[in-house]
Amino acid sequence: MEPKVNEGGLNVTLTIRLLMHGKEVGSIIGKKGETVKKMREESGARINISEGNCPERIVTITGPTDAIFKAFAMIAFKFEEDIDNSMTNSTATSKPPVTLRLVVPASQCGSLIGKGGSKIKEIRESTGAQVQVAGDMLPNSTERAVTISGMPDAIIQCVKQICVVMLEVEYKSPPKGATIPYRPKPASAPVIFAGGQVRADPLSASAANLSLLLQHQPLPAYTIQGQYAIPHPDQLTKLHQLAMQHTPFTPLGQTTPGFPGMDGNSPASTHELAIPNDLIGCIIGRQGSKINEIRQMSGAQIKIANAAEGSTERQITITGSPANISLAQYLINAR
Hints:
By secondary structure, the protein is of the alpha+beta class. The protein has helices at 22-29, 34-43, 65-87, 106-113, 118-127, 152-172, 233-244, 277-284, 289-298, 322-334, and strands at 5-6, 9-10, 13-21, 46-49, 56-64, 98-105, 130-133, 143-150, 222-225, 228-231, 269-276, 301-304, 313-320. Helix 2 (34-43) packs antiparallel against helix 3 (65-87) and helix 9 runs antiparallel to helix 10.
C-alpha cells in the first residue's frame, strides 16, 4: 500500500533509527528502565536500544506513524528537561537546543537534500528546526547521520517531514543495493571472529542476491526494513573482517556449491567495471576520500583509469581475493 499524506498523518508503519551517546541513552532508559517503559506504553511504539559497551548506541523506534511521533516527542521533551536541569547551576545565559541524530540510508539522503538543497531548505523554513546531513557515510556502513536541532515541537514537525521524504523514496525508487546498517564500535579492542566463513555473490549487489554463507553459528542473513532486505549486521561485520585478511580462505568443501571461482584457495584476481563519467565523482569523493574509504573497507586494490578522449565512461580495475573484489563492487554500487 502506498503511503498517503493527509491531515491525520501517514497510514504506515515505520522504523526510525537514532544515534545516541551513552549519557543520552541513560536518560532515555531511566532508573531501572522506568523511563523507556513509560515511553513504550504511552506511545505504543517499540523502542529497542542496541547492546554493547559502546560510546554510541542505536535506538530503534518502530510502529505506526502516530506512535513514532509520540515516542519522538517524549524523547525530545526528555532531552529538553535534561538541558533545563543542567542549567540550574550553570552560568550560561542562552539555552542550547535539543539535538537528535537520525541514521538514514545514504541512498535516501539525496532526496532529503533536494535539488540544489531545495528540500532541506524547505524543511528548515517550515519547521524552524536546523537540519544537517553528514557528507560522509558512518564507518563501515552505507548510512549517514542526519542531525536535527531545535525546540521539541520543531523537531517533531521536522521528523514528520523527513519520514514523508523517506517513504516517498522507498516506494517510488527503492534503492538497488542493500543498505549496510551502521553499528557503533565497542570502546574496547575490536572482537576478531574466528572460524566463520563468509561468501558474497560478486555478480550482484542487490539485497536479494547478496548471499552470505556461514560454516559456523549460522545467523539470519537479512533483516527486513521497509520494502527491502538488509544483510544481517553480524554477517556484514564478518564479511568486512574476512575481506580485510590477506591470507586465503580455507575451502568450503561440498557444503556450499554455486559459487564458481570462489573456492577458498583461489589466487588474487582482477575485475573491471565501466562507470559513466557523470557518476565517477560520487565514487572518488572530495580529494579521493570515498575511493580511499572503499579501498580500506574492502581490502582490494582499486585503480581508476584516466578519462579517454571521446569516451563517456571511466574504467575501474579491482584487484584482490574474490571476497575483496565482491565487497569493493558492492560498496561502489552503493555509492
